[in-house]
Amino acid sequence: MDFSDPQIQMYVLIGAGILVAAILLMLRAVLQQSSLSAHQMDALGQRVGQLSSGQDQLGGSLSNVAQNQTIAQTQLTNLMEQRLGEVQLNLHENLSAVQRRTGENLAKMQQQMTDNLAAQQLKLQENLADMQLRTNRSLADLQEKLNHSLSGNAKQTATSLTALQERLATIDKAQENITKLSGDVLSLQDILSNKQTRGAFGEIQLHDIVSKALPRDSYAIQHSLSNGRRADCLVHLPNPPGPIVIDSKFPLEAYEKMLASQTEAELKAGIQMFRTSVRKHIKDISERYILEGETADGALMFLPSEAIYAELHAKFPDLVQESFTARVWIVSPTTCMATLNTMRAILKDARMREQAGEIRKALKNLHRDVEIVGERAGKLETHLRQAGEDVSGILTAASRAGKRAHRLDNFDFEEIAPDPENVVPLAKQPGE
Questions:
Q1: If phi over 0 gives left and psi between -120 and 50 gives alpha, with beta otherwise, what is residue 246?
Q2: Of 79, 107, 135, which residue constitutes the final position of a domain?
Q3: How far apart are CA 56 and CA 67, in angstroms?
């Protein structure tokens, strides 16, 4: 127990007073109840004197205790003030050191964040430049391929037109030669007197005309059909009309008989023979070379003689009409060349349509590639926008950190009042 505490001293004095009062009351009660002997009274008086002397000593001791307590409190107060000053000084020094280290750490952190942001921005710029370079390179390659393809198609078209002009010139020359030779047809009677030779002559002439007018892969000579018949020439036209047959027929005997007639009867007989021969050729071609699903719905009958062709159209229009009805078109070397040129244009148009399909396919693929480039550019824009937002967020966080560091620099630690509840006692007092 700590007797230097004023409250404890007060309690001790009160207890002593109460004890003395109780003793006096007891003595008084004893004296009232019985009369004591003188000796007892003297002893009692001595005891009372001793008690008074003890009370005086107790009072002196308590006074000394109070003085000592006052001195101890004064020393304790001075010591606590001294220690508190030291604690405040240490706290101020520690806070200054903490503030300095915090400022240094914040400065380092801000520098690191600045360096990191600069590095990320540089890397992002490099990635953007590289991606832009790759995109430009891809677009340049694509444009170069497209230009090359278009240039190749234009060159091919120009080459085809040049070849067509050359072939037309060749055809004109051939037509001139045929015109010259048409007057000499009758001089070929010796050669054409034999039926087989005459048929071979027509086939050779037909092959010569066809080979000059059409590409080699667009026709077939002596082509076998599904019915077992062999066509002199089959031109592979696209549908419609489909593959069309050209068969050479040469009714020379009937024509010569008609021309050589001297009388009316011979003329009628020659005309009838010519009609019969031409009608038979038309029927044979219609039945043999017009096959549904395999050939076109018409066929060509090639007459190797311009004279016979002219005679037929001039004097036998009914036969020409019958050939139209039977879907058999009669052609001469000249008209056959014109017809073949038309077929060549059809073939060329079909091939150009095929090439146009390839071009459309290439353009479709190109459009799909451009759409992919657009999608990737959109994704790139999203990534760039997200990166920009991240950089903006980092700059905002760095700005907030800088403001907080600035506020820490402006703190005045000397104005902060100490909190008594948080003060730690420096030393334990005796009795604790």
A1: beta
A2: 107
A3: 16
* pLDDT: which is higher, 275 or 400: 275
Could you tell me if 190 and 96 lie in one domain?
Answer: no
Question: From residue 249, how far is each of 209, 265, 309, 399, 409 by CA, in Å?
Answer: 15, 26, 11, 102, 116
Convert the pLDDT of each residue in 118-132 to its tens digit. 888 888 888 878 887
Q: How far apart are CA 294 and CA 236, in angstroms?
A: 11
User: Same structural domain for residues 195 and 100?
Assistant: no
Q: In this predicted structure, what is the pLDDT of residue 432?
A: 45
Backbone angles phi, psi at 32, to 5 degrees: -70, -35
Contact (CB, 8 A) for 286 and 280: no
Cα–Cα distance between 87 and 425 in angstroms, integer? 11
pLDDT single digits (tens) 212-256: 888 888 888 888 888 888 888 998 888 878 888 988 887 877 888
Q: Which of 331, 359, 377 is the last residue in one of the domains?
A: 331
* pLDDT digits 0-9 by tens, 391-407: 888 878 777 877 777 77
- Considering the domain architecture, whether residues 214 and 302 belong to the same structural domain is answered as yes
d(CA 161, CA 178): 25
CATH number for the domain that contains residue 271: 3.40.1350
C-beta of residue 401 within 8 angstroms of C-beta of residue 110: yes
Q: What is the DSSP secondary-structure string of 36-93?
A: PPHHHHHHHHHHHHHHHHHHHHHHHHHHHHHHHHHHHHHHHHHHHHHHHHHHHHHHHH
Domain that holds residue 212: 183-331
Cα separation of 201 and 194, whole Å?
Answer: 10
Residues 196 and 325 in one domain: yes
Q: Is the dihedral of CA 311, 209, 250, 321 positive or negative?
A: negative
| Pair 408, 99: CB distance under 8 Å | yes
Long-range contacts of 369-372 (CB under 8 A, 24+ apart): 369/142
Q: Is 221 helix (H, G, I), strand (E, B) or coil?
A: strand
- Three-class DSSP category at 330: strand
pTM above 0.85, yes or no: no
